[in-house]
Design goal:
The protein is an alpha+beta fold. The protein has two domains: 197 residues, Gcn5-related N-acetyltransferase (GNAT) (Aminopeptidase, 3-Layer(aba) Sandwich); 166 residues, Gcn5-related N-acetyltransferase (GNAT) (Aminopeptidase, 3-Layer(aba) Sandwich). Helices cover 38% and strands 26% of the residues. Strands 1, 2, 3, 4, 5, 6, 7 and 15 form an eight-stranded mixed beta sheet that branches. The chain has a seven-stranded mixed beta sheet with strand order 9-10-11-12-13-8-14, sandwiched between helices. Helix 2 packs antiparallel against helix 10. The protein starts with a strand and ends in a 13-residue tail after the last helix.
Length: 381
């Protein structure tokens, strides 16, 4: 840490000129995406942008997010049971002020990026120092941060961090990240279909037949703006029925995203009798295709197998545009595995700022996680 220092910024206007050069390999740390967060973050979220310096040279960038769960309309309405009620009570009363080092809105290791090789000891020290600095910032405002979480590390990085200061912090694994590594030999969607076993090729044909009346169309900024209320209605329906939420997007989020990111952000609408009944979004992140939020009319989804068709369409886009892999994120693990995605375990680290509560974290945290039972599918020959 002797040669490294950091500075925390609360606005993208304050960022150093070389920020995007450092963030070159990850679109989720580049200024055009950070401006999306700044202009259309969830109402209960505040973002911080961290510059890491070697002497006076910017060599690293990172993201932190503060969430006030007291402002949340719902933690998720799908699972109504005693365990969920207890979980919600605990979050409201003992964990309502949460600081994430990383990006809580997406799945994957997107919390930091460096242009120079830096040891994991220094990374661990820097992340903890940043967490302490932001915690003290809120303390000065009479806000006590309850929980600090370091989000989404692939196993190699988690193991390395645990060799240093992170060995003292509780490690957790939530639902895996569903990732589809696309074989280079697949040149077209027909190659993908041909790789299925008969059972899953039949599933593909059946789902497409069910959705024959659905018209799909990529929407322009003007069309997204015009459909903003409907897009949000469809998104909100899916979000509030998720097993657990820590935020809801702002209504202008998708139009802001398109405005800032242009062709790197895709919103595809699904129309039935000229009415928008669903949408999915994608972000082009170098050679990686990142799936983002989606929404649908529940009745149409059931009748037309809309969600499954969205997964197939995202996969087709990935194959035909020569992406190396598609990040499908967490949730709906079984159906995502049925189209070819595979589970990749990711770790997070979490501590409570109350030392007595923190000692109980290994017992408390597993009780807060929604129960997860699923069967991985293997769709290929």
């Amino acid at each position: 840490m002797d040669t490294h220092s950091f500075e925390i910024f609360s606005s993208t206007a304050q960022l150093p000129e070389t920020w995007d050069k450092v963030a070159h390999n990850n679109v989720f740390l580049q200024t055009h995406y950070l401006k999306v967060l700044e202009d259309s973050a969830p109402t209960n979220m505040q973002c911080f942008y961290i510059g890491i310096f070697e002497k006076s040279e910017l060599i690293g960038v990172a993201l932190a997010q503060y969430l006030n769960l007291n402002k949340l309309e719902s933690f998720g309405e799908r699972d109504q049971c005693l365990k969920t009620s207890i979980r919600n009570f605990i979050f409201k009363n003992f964990a309502s002020h949460v600081l994430f080092l990383g990006n809580n809105m997406i799945t994957g290791q997107n919390g930091y990026e460096f242009t120079k090789a830096i040891g994991f000891k220094d990374i661990a020290d820097l992340l903890l120092e940043c967490a302490n600095a932001i915690t003290n910032y809120f303390k000065d405002q009479k806000i006590a941060i309850h929980i600090v979480s370091f989000k989404d590390f692939y196993q190699h990085c988690a193991e390395e961090l645990k060799k240093h200061q992170f060995s003292k912090i509780y490690e957790f694994n939530t639902q895996p990240n569903m990732i589809f590594e696309l074989p280079k030999k697949w040149q077209t969607n027909e190659d993908y279909i041909a790789a299925f076993s008969k059972k899953y090729r039949d599933q593909y044909k059946r789902s497409h037949k069910k959705s024959a009346e659905i018209v799909t169309k990529e929407l322009s900024l003007e069309e997204i703006t015009r459909q903003e209320e409907r897009i949000y209605e469809l998104y909100h329906h899916v979000a509030k029925n998720a097993p657990f939420n820590t935020f809801f997007l702002a209504k202008n989020h998708f139009s802001t995203f398109k405005k800032q990111c242009g062709e790197r952000f895709k919103l595809v609408g699904y129309f039935l009798e000229e009415k928008l009944v669903g949408f999915h979004t994608l972000l082009l992140n170098g050679n990686v295709l990142e799936t983002y939020f989606l929404g649908y009319d529940d009745q149409v989804q059931k009748e037309k197998m809309l969600y499954l068709n969205m997964l197939y369409n995202m996969t087709e886009f990935g194959i035909e545009n020569r992406f190396e892999k598609i990040i499908f994120g967490r949730t709906a693990l079984e159906i995502k595995s049925s189209i070819g995605a595979e589970p990749i375990v990711m770790s997070g680290f979490i501590y409570h700022t109350n030392k007595w509560v923190n000692k109980l974290m290994p017992k408390i945290f597993p009780q807060l996680e929604p129960d997860l039972v699923w069967q991985q599918r293997h769709p290929f020959k």
